[in-house]
Amino acid sequence: MHKPSIRRQAGVTLVEMTAVLGITSVLLGSALPDLSRMRANQSLHQAVAQLRTDVQFARASAVALGQTVRLATATDTGGSCYVIHAGPSGSCQCAGAAATCSAQGRLLHAAHLGTSHPVTVSANVSNMIFDGKLGTVTPTGTLTLAAAGGQQLKVVVNVMGRAHTCRAAGSISGYPAC
User: Fold this and answer.
1) DSSP annotation string for the chain
2) Which residue in 11, 24, 78, 162 has the fewest CB atoms around it within 10 Å?
3) In this structure, how many other beta carbons lie within 10 angstroms of the beta carbon of residue 90?
4) The whole model's pTM is what?
5) pLDDT at 5
6) Which residues form the domain of 74?
7) Is 144 left (phi over 0), alpha (psi -120 to 50) or beta?
8) How far is CA 86 from CA 52, 135, 136, in A?
């Protein structure tokens, strides 16, 4: 005698697929704020690492060239930036997305954080001057990097031209509080 074969279902039903899509969309919706916060923190970490590298570059350039090198910051409607240059104060400056120098200035490096960049840079001094003979900095200064979410990291440059980073605002791991 022949037994009737039971037909097994192959695939998923529309109800099962809808349930999975619903659960997935709820999970993704709850994770999006964390992803944007994580992206802002990552941009802040990258900007701090670049700035610290550039501070060391300014000090090393001053010693290598045997002349004064300046680090100057600026903020305008196009965003914020900093320039590293040799020459008199104000001989190089940020102009929109590019840096320009007068005849007396020599641009060594510039970094522009435009309005679309999630991080801004500012300083408590207009110029940090790196001495070409001693490698020292006068005046010492603090450069503040701020993300759109309110997180802030400060890069503090001491008289010897060394930089350390601390957390000024927000919950950013890996940095001591200022």
Assistant:
1) -PPPPPPPP-S--HHHHHHHHHHHHHHHHHHHHHHHHHHHHHHHHHHHHHHHHHHHHHHHHHHHHTS-EEEEEEEETTEEEEEEEESSTTSEEEETTEEEE-TT-EEEEEEEEETTSSEEEEESSSEEEE-TTT--EES-EEEEEEETTS-EEEEEE-TTS-EEEEEEES--TTS-B-
2) 11
3) 14
4) 0.77
5) 66
6) 35-169
7) beta
8) 19, 14, 15
Per-residue pLDDT, averaged over 4-15, amounts to 73
Structure tokens at 161: 């031209």
Q: Is residue 17 part of a domain?
A: no
- Tokens (6 digits) for 118: 């999630």
Summarize pLDDT for 45-58 with one digit per residue, the tens.
899 999 999 999 99
CA-nearest of 121, 178, 176, 170 to 150 is: 170
Q: Which amino acid is at 47?
A: A
Which CATH number do you get for residue 96?
Answer: 3.55.40.10
- Alpha-carbon span 176 to 172, nearest angstrom: 9
In this structure, is residue 51 part of a structural domain?
yes
Is residue 138 in some structural domain? yes
Residue 147 in this model has a pLDDT that exceeds 70 = yes
Q: Domain for residue 6, yes or no?
A: no
Amino acid letter, 24: T
